Amino acid sequence: MPQNSSSPDSVTTMTNRTSFLPFGESNSNLNKQGRNDKLPTCAKPFIRTILGTEGALLTINCRRPYTSLKIVIVYYAVPGCGHADVTEKVISYCDSHGTETYCTLIPSNQNMGVDPCYATTKQFIITYYCI
What we know:
131 residues, mainly beta, Jelly Rolls, five-stranded antiparallel sheet, two-stranded antiparallel ribbon
């Protein structure tokens, strides 16, 4: 996977993929092309998935002409050990600490309110879209 050169080394960007879903799970919101059928038609091509690491700064944003970002799903996980769906926690955080088009956070057990796999570095997987 290509590295996102404008982000920390631990961040990778994927577009329109479902392979990021932890541990063989399926996401009923996404179809086989990684697009969310419930999204407005104009938003479908702009779904983004960002992978980060516990403790590393992670930024999600939408640039002009987009005026809003919408979080679809967020996992805090360790493959083969455990995971947590922290979507609501991240939406709440970004609503209170971000802007309409930008949110920066540092995933941690304390910030996510859960430790899905004790004493291991977690992955942070966030899917969002821009409208």
